[in-house]
Amino acid sequence: MGSCIKDKFYIFQVEVIFSQSYVSAKLVGLASQPGCHNGRTEGGCCWDLFFPRSHYGSIPLMVLPYEYPQGKLGIFVLWNRSVGDLGYYQGELQGIVIPSLKGFHLTWKCFQCASTGSTPDSGLKEARFPALVVRVRRRVDEIPWNTGSMNTSTDEEEFCNEKTALMSAESPSVPLYDDGRGSQRAKESQTVRHRSSSSQINNTDREDHSSSRVSVTDSEVEELSLKYGAKHVIMLFVPVTLCMVVVVATIKSVSFYSTKNGQLIYTPFTEDTDSVGQRLLNSVLNTLIMISVIVVMTILLVLLYKYRCYKVCPTPFSCAGSCYHDQPKWAQAQCSKATMRLLTDARICMCVHNQPGTPTIPRAKEVFKTYNVAMDYPTVALIIWNFGVVGMICIHWKGPLQLQQAYLIMISALMALVFIKYLPEWSAWVILGAISIYDLVAVLCPKGPLRMLVELAQERNEPIFPALIYSYEEACNNRPEDGDLSRNTAASENRVGAVEELEEERGVKLGLGDFIFYSVLVGKAAATASGDWNTTLACFVAILIGLCLTLLLLAVFKKALPALPISITFGLIFYFSTDYLVRPFMDTLAEHQFYI
Amino acid sequence: MTVCVFFGCTFIAFGPAISLFIFTVARDPLRVIFLIAGAFFWLVSLLLSSLVWFIAVQISNKENASLQKGLLIFGVVLSVFLQEAFRFGYYKLLKKANEGLMALNQDDTMPISIRQLAYVSGLGFGFMSGAFSVVNILADSLGPGTVGIYGDPPHYFVSSAFMTMAIILLHMFWGVVFFDACEKKQWLSLAVVVCTHLLVSCLTFLNPQYEGSLIPAYVIAFVMGAWAFFISGGSLRNLRLCLTCKDKDFLLANHRPR
Known about the structure:
The complex is a heterodimer. Chain A is of the alpha+beta class. Chain A contains 13 helices and 15 strands. The longest helix of chain B is centred in the first third of the chain and has 40 residues, at 65-104. The interface between A and B is large, with 43 and 54 residues. Chain A: Residues 168-216 are annotated as: Disordered.
């Protein structure tokens, strides 16, 4: 049986599958002779490909966590089941795991037969080693890989043993899959090779139980990329809507927030002046002070990040953001996520408190007052303490994703409520406008602080402080201090909701400051507009459309983009026009009960 | 003027629309986006028409009540025309976007068909139109007060709610018929849509006499609904199969054994 190996020269076809969340390899065929079939070369010779780290002998597949850096992907073994210990190839598969197949590079080293080989760098998807043909394909269906079990339908699997090995089957040939070309790739310098498969479809292809098409053409890629793009948009609509709903509901029910009761120290000039000009001047001055505070805080944040002072953790209260999408650097094969950039905004008097719990105390008091709920201090203290501690744990350490998102939304809503209460009217509008302009400048200018922050984060392949960004999937646990753990844990449990995406981005993330300022706009519309709900609705729709457009631009440009300008501009336009133009019209119509 | 009235009127006005949203639109993110875009287009049309009305009112004599009423009627008519114009504009935009998408695909597969877009955009228009017409009224119905104490019609809230429901459904049907007419270049159908919209709006001028406005509005809604149904490929046979749960394609798609 040893002659199985020594005398014959087998070309094993190993398919290495790259997807967003894993890399796996499987033995799909033996192309060296006709009549070969998966794992079967000839009578008595059944081969398996597996990685020793997985269940020995049972699962011939290895799922690698996506965040695997370059280097050793694993040792794998081509094991002749019939022969057992006497006949196997053991080799080492090294490579670089990258999000796309642009710069795929794989080397193979066989210990026994001293053969080596590697794929060229430029995205070629096939490499022939003396005993190994590696073909790669991009997995484009949506079903996340179920690690630790045979994901594919086991009824389809050929049961290969001595008996079945005697049967011959038709020659398998794995079709080459297209690289998957989305419209975004047009921007990149990479030339994508279209390889259409003319070979017959491997009818025992276990992978495709979920997608009936074997070859991925452009249209499917395009359709999926459009659907995934739309999914991202909705994933952001929902939290933004929730935050706005919370803010509007609080404003409408708790009258505390609509009453003027003092101002922040960041806006010292009052607006109770006699003339319009004086009021305007005061609001502009307030804005200047606020914006300069924000600039200073942002620069401070960037410096802290640059010099790796991660312990000085910015509080959950301090960010606005905008969105960007980075160019995947294939040399750094980490998750190239589309993250949002940050803009620190001014902290209010709560800035010394680092916990989510503290600003809720005065809010809770107001809510209790409104609904006439009798409450005692020990209960409140217990509740708030728990709330705060769980929030801290969830946001800064680990916690269920839903809880983390809920906390971030609550915090943004609270911040927005504080702004709505304490910012004087005209100042609020001017500040909103000025923040959008600052956002634009800080993100798009080459020396802008936020752009630098984003680039730093990308270079180091770390997520930006988790307390400042809202994301709809598990943050990669690539914290600087537990980078080693990530490899082992990432494959096992942290793929919660990780829908497989086609493009490079892991997901779109939005900074908390964006939530805050959107909610400030809508909340101010609810609190101060005399047209009430029409104005609020109009601002809401305008902000959503602005967000949609921003995400569209993000998909087109694939770089960091400010999320505030477009939405805030639309919001402001619609606020003022609805309040002054539409409201009288609709009121007059409603009076006569005319319908348009 | 209680919570009952509030909830009752809300569900009357928005019930069908919200259930349509939940069951047909909410699952598909693309449809949600196009719905919101449709709502946005309606909003812009309203903005323009209010701008014109506002300017007209400002330069006119505010004391003259009949002039003001005339200007209001003019505003309504203008608004109807602008809404339909923006519907046409939205159609053109969607066609361009679809063409762009299809140019990128070699396979001519579109993720969303023009009929779905028609339905979704009509629903978006309807949502926004209904919301703007009735939300303030609903908010007022929560508070204290007595309706009709000065001789105004006492059924203000309920009739507003029913009218809103009719308007939302009508917008949806108009959207379907409109897009189909644009696709097939049947300008007569287009004109019929615009005319029925104008008719429904003008009938509301009769409004304290709700028989004159509500009943024709519902009749027109039913007619438009049937027209949209037949345009979208429905037929009496389909309807019968669906209602008696014998439609095999539908059952298979929903994994229900029969």
